Amino acid sequence: MQLFNPTVNYQQPNEEGYYGEYGGAYIPEMLYGNVEELKSRYLEIMNDPTFQAAFHALLKDYVGRPTPLFLAERLSKEIGATIYLKREDLCHTGAHKINNTIGQILLAQRLGKTKIIAETGAGQHGVATATVCALKGLECVVYMGEKDIERQAPNVARMKLLGAKVVPATSGSKTLKDATNEAIRAWINEPDTTHYIIGSVVGPHPYPDMVAKFQSVISEETRKQLKEKTGSELPTHVVACVGGGSNAAGAFYHFLNEPTVEIVAVEAAGHGVHSGMSAATTQLGTTGILHGSKSILMQTKDGQVVEPHSISAGLDYPGIGPLHAYLFKSGRGTFMSATDEEALEWASHLSKIEGIIPALETAHAFAVLPKMNLKPTDVVVVCLSGRGDKDLATYMSNIKM
Amino acid sequence: MSRLSSLFNKKNARVLNVYCTAGFPKLNSTLEVMESLQANGADIIEVGMPYSDPLADGEVIQSSSLVALENGMTLEILFEQLAEMRKTIHVPVILMGYMNPILQYGFERFCAAAKAVGVDGLILPDLPLYEFEHIYGTTIKANELDFIFLVTPETSEERLRKLDALSSGFIYAVSSSATTGKDKDFSKVALYLKRLKAFNLKNPFLVGFGIKDKESFDAVNEYANGAIIGSAYIKALNAGEGINAITKTFLASILK
Asked: Which candidate from A2, A25, A172 shows the least CB-CB separation from B53?
């Protein structure tokens, strides 16, 4: 296929945004101007030293980076390998999401935008967006599925407290995918002054690449911290959960071109991969186009997008970023999955053996550790993408305490 | 010569293209709606292929698509419904829809099926220029289907010329950068259309998005070769009883 970029570089899609056959910008002409503006300017802006300085200053003083790389001793002993936790849960707002929103708000300012729109599922990205908008004094509108607004009341309150307007997405299945449609439509309807901050490594090119690069600070720090702690920058494995895949893209990024590092992506199996209530996209999906890029997608044989299921709202997305689709297809990444039940067990277990209550999304990543056949010499980095405060209600109703 | 070219050869002003959603309001009403549109004065019929996540559509058309999907509409069924359409439909017929369902059906198979039932052209808003040129365009042309690109007030002249060169049949001029079914300020639209007309494009152009009544239809026809009506017709179908009666009243109100 002519779109294929024969030089395999997992860190940089080709000019048109393709990682292998996945990616691109399948957008209506009404969005062409906005996307083209971003496409032609994002690398130049992001590579500008003054931009980098501003980005890193905020990451340090506002977000609280670098986040620690913590040796989880009791967990290591139990699993039989050395396990480090990259503590994204300690970021301001409680998850890695803010790495991207800080980057994009600075970029939006460089582009002269005065208004920000975003989509959100569980509300984590919405909160991270509302936060940076408050920080920079920009108007903020967050689109959120009507069903998610009901399910995630505390995050809706947080966004409102931060000054954002939360607009219910009432179309389609009224969840994350529909909130994304609504946000893209809103962007079509008021293009000039508005920047759309996508929350994951999805959407039309250049979003997947841009978000991956903002999140790559996770693996950049991990390399340095590992070197200090172990003498080597490289672990044997990096493990992260994948919905759209932004924490995974960030945790994997600086290891993607290191063939000795095994990349492990963990999808949400819901009630079980083949239960009909799952969000394990690579296991159940086929090539398709959603939200402006070609990737792997859960859909009917007629090409209608299927509503996935996961107990974790952050993994409850029918697609996966094109980079991850390529990692899957090329075999560079190992894709595993964890069920709702396993995630709940591990949320509880990690809390008890390490004193860290993880987000439900993150708990999926831990659930695969016993299945990885790890050796005592293995050094594993798990991206602890978020903290569990937002999931307390779910934990209270599902975990025996 | 394609049906679209013949149409524009005979009539190059006030061409009316009306959009309807396949499988809406009833699964088997597709052909009835099309026949009614033809009988009551539509020059072109644009049949929407419903998709769960239609980025360029507004609320009205999206909810009609949802109804159609709930009715069980698929591309397989659509082509069965259209198999005999050329026995009664003589006006050009265009299929409008999104790439994903077509990719699952098979792009080549889709183009071949469209040609076989007598479809004249395609509007695929999320098929970008680059992918059209490098992958899909050849198949579309090989099946003698016209391909209609969208242009907007923000489209640069250079890009406009390129989209015009690659389009055939006509160009779809979006009245403003917005989704379907929004109200428009037609004084701004007029400036844009005047500019568009001055470019002397190879293709005729029809204006869509926001055309909902006689006033807006007349306004854009000062400069354009015609217009496309979608949401307003779907709204009318939603509001009334009896497809033919609604269509007759609706088109009469536009064309009077």
From this structure: A172
List, for residues B158-197, the tens digit of each pLDDT value. Answer: 999 999 999 999 999 998 766 665 655 677 788 899 999 9
Conformational region of residue B209, where left means phi above 0, alpha means psi within -120 to 50, and beta covers everything else:
left
Distance from B135 to chain A by nearest Cα, in Å? 7
Distance separating alpha carbons of residues A264 and A360, to the nearest angstrom: 18
Q: Which residue of A has its CA nearest to B102?
A: A303
Q: Which residues of A touch B (CB under 8 A)?
A: 1-3, 16, 24-30, 32-33, 171-172, 177-178, 181, 184-185, 188-189, 191, 286-292, 297, 299, 301-305
Whether residues A28 and B150 touch (CB distance < 8 A) is answered with yes
Burial class (CB in 10 A: 0-12, 13-18, 19+), B82: buried
How many CB atoms sit inside 10 A of residue A364's CB?
Answer: 35
Q: What is the pLDDT of residue A326?
A: 97
- For domain B3-255, the CATH superfamily is Aldolase class I (3.20.20.70)
Whether domain A18-57+97-211 has CATH 3.30.450.20: the reply is no
Q: Which of A39, A86, A97, A113 is catalytic?
A: A97
Out of A26, A289, A302, name the one closest to residue B74 (CB): A302
